[in-house]
Amino acid sequence: MAENPKSTSNDEPVTAAMVIIGNEILSGRTQDANLAYAATRLNDFGIQMAEVRVIPDVEDTIIKTVNELREKFHYVFTTGGIGPTHDDITAESIAKAFGVPIAIDPMARALLEEHYGVDNLTEARLRMARVPEGAVLIDNPLSRAPGFQIGNVLVMAGVPIVMKSMIDSVAPRLIGGKPVLSRTVTALVRESDIAVGLENVQDKYSSVEIGSYPFFRKNMVGSNLVMRGTDADVLEQVVEDLKVLIRDLGAEPLDEPPV
Fold first, then answer.
1. Is the pLDDT of residue 226 over 80?
2. What is the mean pLDDT of residues 119-136?
3. How many structural domains does the chain have?
4. Residue 129: pLDDT above 80?
5. Would you call 155 helix, strand, or coil by DSSP?
6. Residue 20 forms beta bridges with which residues?
7. Co-location of 35 and 72 in the same domain
8. Hey, is 14 helix, strand or coil?
9. Which end of the chain has less neighbouring CB within 10 Å, N or C?
10. What is the CATH number of the domain that holds 168?
């Protein structure tokens, strides 16, 4: 069940959603540090992060969210809730989402025994070896407690350094599309002045996502125009059109934002 059930064509973007699970994130006590790394790393393999949700440690919410997103996207990545304590309910919730039993995985148990020693493998630590039936383990070279993949859902730790090691270990086996490339042009023009021309450029290049991000610094007002797409040649055409637009407004395009 570790295979990705969605088929893709060469031109179809491969998309992913991320589910950040944890009451501590929602309360503000802990800040998520995983999304930026996951989105950047997955893009290296041609997988575009398309949606992110932050949800509590509530079984029904986890089940509903995962079941909805796994039908919508090629991959779903979850972080958090696979530790040794009573409130770590992600693994059991994922099993229920797929309608399969959960049990101690022999390989996961062996990894934990090697890490902690047989005598120190407590019942609490053994909880981290529970895996839904049919899942494939995701390697954790740091603390050894593995994540797992079932269907197109990949379940990973919430601790950032562990999550990064897990996504690094699993990313090469995922099926991706074309990586999304990015270019930025900066101009000392207000968003309101460039808005109409920018919309016209966007209409001309539907395959490229164009965003405008204003900045204010040292008495300067300007906009960073960011283009994202999978075709390098088309991106260069957009860059040139934007430079013409900026010059028509009486400004000079910059390759780097002013400091």
1. yes
2. 96
3. 2
4. yes
5. strand
6. 54, 79
7. yes
8. strand
9. C
10. 3.40.980.10
Q: What is the DSSP letter of 171?
A: G
Residue pointed to by tokens 């393999």: 45
Domain that holds residue 191: 181-248
Residue 258 lies in a domain: no
Pull the structure tokens for residue 88. 């770590």
Q: Quote the pLDDT of residue 218.
A: 77
Give the domain CATH number at 215: 3.30.70.600
The fraction of the chain above a pLDDT of 90, given in percent, is 85
Establish how many alpha carbons lie within 13 A of residue 130's alpha carbon, considering only the half-sphere containing its beta carbon: 23
How many other CB atoms are found less than 10 A from the CB of residue 107?
A: 12
Per the domain annotation, does 91 fall within a domain?
yes
pLDDT exceeds cutoff 80 at 1: no
Within a domain: residue 75? yes
In this prediction, residue 10 carries a pLDDT of: 56
Of 184, 193, 192, nearest in space to 225 by CA: 184
Q: Which two tokens stand for residue 50?
A: 């398309």
- In sequence order, what DSSP letters do the residues of 81-141 get, joined into one string? --SSSTT--HHHHHHHHHT--EEE-HHHHHHHHHHH-GGG--HHHHGGGEEETT-EEE--T
Amino acid identity of residue 76, one-letter, is V
Q: Tens digit of pLDDT for each residue in 41-74?
A: 999 899 999 999 999 999 999 999 999 999 999 9
Interval 14-20 mean pLDDT: 97
Sheet containing 209-217: order of strands? 181-187, 220-229, 209-217
Q: Which residue has the tokens 């494939």?
A: 136
Q: Look up the pTM and report it.
A: 0.83
Rounded to whole angstroms, the Cα distance separating 193 from 196 reads 7
